[in-house]
# Entry
Amino acid sequence: MTTPTTSRLGPVLRHWPVLVGVGVAALVILDMTAGVELAKLLAASAVVYLGASALGKQSATWPVFFVTLAVILAADIIDEDFEATWAVLGLGVLLGGYGLVRRLREGTRPDPAGLPSQSLAMLVFGAAATLALFVNATVGSFLVALGLLGHAAWDVYHYRTNKVVSRSLAEFCLILDTTVAVAIILLTLLRPSDSLPDRGFATTLATKQLLRSSPPGDFRERRQEAVSSAIFGRAVPAPTSQDMSTSSATVWPERIAPSM
# Structure
């Protein structure tokens, strides 16, 4: 028997990927210092689609997603200074290679919407994620945001056609990509251009080191306040270069002291 409560919850339960996407996006945003850090998320979005295509099963979508997530977490845990994007791209190469070998062995005619398209998408999104790591943090952040918005359009296409990946994954990924991309753009616009390293290889590494050097309650909290102000309309000052110099002055004596 259907109760009024059940009938009201029906539409919500049918779109559970939206709720999960919003929740995951919130966790990602709250832990974000700069958008360029999420180059690994852009790469992972493409790898999941490529993996599902390589395995030839829509049902493999979520397992591939969790494997990709495990690769990111493992890379961060084993060495926090290692850029997880490289591990994700490596996984993409392995999955793409498996898909190619599988098609050659089975002798099946490839679906244009399958492995060829997903391989091309992997090249485009993977190149954007890689390029973001080699430019300054501001440009890199915008590259990641634009890449995520581009992948959101890819999500819409696959949701409508119901091909390659499951609709639930496409719906989840659409919400995650769009929400995070908007947050990256807002954070990048709010943050002073001199608050993060300007140039250098893998600016995400410099960003992580900067975050670790900031005392509790300083840069991270003010960054979160800046994001909240953009979302809820409260005027909260973003971190300034003076904050960063103060953080450095606080940490460097502690690092130098043991060697004196």
Summary: The chain is about 75% helix and 0% strand. Confidence is low (pLDDT under 50) at residues 226-239, 244-260. Residues 18 and 131 are 30 Å apart (CA to CA).
